[in-house]
Amino acid sequence: MSETVIQHHNPIDSRTVPQKFITIGEIMLRLSPPNYAKIRMASAFEASYGGSEANIALSLANLGVDATFFSVVPDNSLGKSAIRWLRSNDVHCTPMILSTPEQTPTHRLGTYYLETGYGIRASKVIYDRKHSAMAEFDFAGVDLDALLEGYDWLHLSGLTPALSENCAQLILDCLKIAKKKGMTVSFDGNYRAKLWSWEAARDFCTKCLPYVDVLFGIEPYHLYRDDADPSKGDWKDGVPLQPSYEQQDEIFRHFIEKFPNIQCIARHVRYAHSGSENSLKAFMWYQGHTWESRLYTFTILDRVGGGDAFASGFIYAMMRGYKPMDMLNFGVASSVIKHTIHGDANITDDENSIRDLMNMNYDIRR
Predict the structure, then answer these.
(1) Separation of alpha carbons 285 and 263, rounded Å
(2) How far is CA 217 from CA 65, 143, 174, 229, 285, in A?
(3) Closest to 290 in 3D by CA, of 306, 269, 312
């Protein structure tokens, strides 16, 4: 934290002016057996595309935000199909790189298999993304300053740096450039145990925090009680996954004390009653106060991407200058409505549908 960096502008200062959004990450092919079937018994798979950052760009684009996605995909039919899917949802893909076999020797698009849970059976994901084009590409030759020029908001996550050292360096470089440009930066830790270790994730993601304005989630980050002696523990130690208001408020205050550049922290809290029924609410630190959303209980059609939908809904509401409580409830409602949609992303293109859910209005719209 010794590097001198400038302070960002308030993310909602420019709410009267349309903001240009860009995010960077990996897009993957998603293969899932239909009708809640088990993978080991499947004779067919439904194909779609997804990935945390791509999901957020797509959700925002569907709501009318000028959203761009940067990634690397192989120059073959799979890579081109992924780009076509993004463009069909109004996401700008001009900066995306179609790599050659010389640039990415394994020349493959990352893939994941989703076994959708039902009732008491939880969903399961199998990753097949090692040596993907995104992971193998050397970003040293990419002009990142030019890539980020003209954008107001950059969103990144802890998924991309877990892919390779090249990707980790890409994320750090983009954070530093965005900070110098005065962009609003949002970051979601998005820990995946199948990609890297807990300590490696905490070490890297903590390095990102001095550059962040809007933080999603409270892990994986080091929040030591004593930086000089980590053995004294982390302020988050012992805090349950479903904390009380007082517990969450205390953690938020420790984050802000250590990283005063962070203007807003938002995290959703899930209560899994079964594989098919969950409840969601969220907490937010904003303007010196901790806010708690409504609690929504719902039946699940497709859970994957629920956290991305929360982040995209929250970003949208912040961009549009919603009041703080409405920002938080709109984010949760966006996540809830995503659970009723097949695929990785919230493709809702009607803000009022989310606002109706936010206000718990379930009447048919005629």
Answers:
(1) 8
(2) 23, 30, 20, 24, 11
(3) 269
Residue by residue, DSSP assigns 302-313 as --TTHHHHHHHH
Rounded distance, CA 308 to CA 285, Å? 19
Torsion of CA 48, 113, 219, 122, to 10 degrees: 110
Write out the chain's pLDDT in tens, 366 residues. 444 444 444 555 555 567 999 999 999 999 999 999 999 999 999 999 999 999 999 999 999 999 999 999 999 999 999 999 999 999 999 999 999 999 999 999 999 999 998 888 889 999 999 999 999 999 999 999 999 999 999 999 999 999 999 999 999 999 999 999 999 999 999 999 999 999 999 999 999 999 999 999 999 999 999 999 999 999 999 999 999 999 999 999 999 999 999 999 999 999 999 888 999 999 999 999 999 999 999 999 999 999 999 999 999 999 999 999 999 999 999 999 999 999 999 999 999 999 999 988 776 666
Which structure tokens are listed for 300? 């699940």
Residue 158 and residue 80: Cα distance in Å, rounded?
Answer: 25
Cβ–Cβ under 8 Å, residues 280 and 269: yes
Q: Is 103 exposed, middle or buried (0-12, 13-18, 19+ CB in 10 A)?
A: middle
Global pTM? 0.93
The CATH code of domain 17-137 reads: 3.40.1190.20
Domain locations in the chain as residue ranges:
17-137
Collapsing DSSP to helix, strand or coil, 46 comes out as: strand
